[in-house]
Each structure stands twice: as C-alpha cells, then as structure tokens.
Amino acid sequence: MENYWEARMGDITSGIFQAVNLIVTLDPEVLQIAALSLYISLSATILAACVAVPAGGLICFYEFRGKRALITIIQTLYSVPTVVVGLLIYLMISHSGPLGFLSLLFTPEGMILGQTVLIIPIMTGLVIAALGGVDRNIRDTLVSLGATGFQSIVQIVKEARYAILSAVILGFGRAISEVGVAMMIGGNIREQTRVLTTAIALQTGMGDFGFSIALGIILLAIALVIVLIMNFITTGSLGDFDRIMGGSPRA
Prior knowledge:
By secondary structure, the chain is mainly alpha-helical. It contains twelve helices and no strands. The longest helix has 34 residues, at 28-61. The mean pLDDT is 84.
C-alpha cells in the first residue's frame, strides 16, 4: 500500500513539474487550446448579453400575464445539465436537423451557439434580479420628479449597472468551464474544436497528467481573473487579494 501511494504521489509531482514546464515554455498546443477556449466563450458571452440584458429589462419593467411563471422557468434553467443543452443543439444543427444546412456541427461556431443558449437563462435571471433589487425609493423619487417611463428605466439601469456587469461575467465563467456542450457539439477535434475542459478530460483519460494539470492551472487562472474583476466592479478594489499580496484595499 505504501508503494502504491508513493507511486501515485510521484505521478502527481511529475505531472505538476511537466505542467509548469509546458506553461513556462509557452507550449504551442496549450496556447492554442487556451486561445480557442477564450474566443468561443467570449463570443458566446457577448451574444448572450445582447439577448439577456434587453430581455431581462423587458421582463422586469413590464407587467404581463404569466410573468411570475416565466421568471420561475428562467430560474429553473439555471441548473439545466449541459449535456441536455448539448443534445438539443446537436439535434438542431445535425445534418438531419432543421439547421443542418448551416454546417455548424463540430465547428467553433456551433460551440458558440451551444454556450450562448446555455448561459442566456442565467444572465437573464441575474439581470432581472439586479434591476428588481434597485431601491424602491429611487423609483418613487424618479416618478415624483416627473421622469418619463424611459428616463426612469435609464436611471434604474445605471443604478444596477455593476450587478448587470457581474451577471455578464458570471455568464462567461459558466461558459468557459462547461464541458457537455463543448464535447457533444465540438467533438473535441484537435486544433479545431478542442478547448480547455474537453482537453483536460481527454488527456486525463490518456494518462497525460502533466498536460491536464497545465490546462487546469490555466482554467483556474481564468477563474481567478473573473473573481478579481467581479470584486473590483462591485467594491472598487481587489478586496482580499490586496491584503493577501500585502497591500490595502481602497476605502
């Protein structure tokens, strides 16, 4: 048993050293996978934001029959399994599907579509929550000052802008960390549709722990950047990170 654990720790240690070497030497394949991941997830986030922010605003500001039910459905879709989204998009864009003529299957564009569909409900729900969380007194003050409906909406959006931007950033985090849609729609094709999450799954299965750890470190670094950006947006400083690094956050 002791020899077994020594062997396993040896694999982990050598994998970490190999991962550091791949990152330090700027391995072309690692960089290509990371760059493709960022391209796909950023594109999906931008497209989703163009849909989710206006949709969230309309749902929040206007009253209509079934509004509560619609919000409940959107919130339920927060936790929809990525493989379910991947399956639905696959059926839509496969050669026998209604969108098969677009030839999106096993392409980065198809993966962008899948990630966009995946994160739209999350971003929409968070935008609704952000706009709905604006202090009611602000709305009453705007009305008392004679602001029109459009002017009131603009001011409320300004008040909630940081929360809305945080929703967009969270959408990006969800997109870049998912694996089901990327695997089913992209096919994990080397130098074409292989992204961080699918490459980690593949290389781990092949026993290439160094490569997997290198990609995992990059993915964690991206997650850290996302958290730091959110902290900076919401507090105006890097918060705990400043203290960890020996600095002091701004008041």
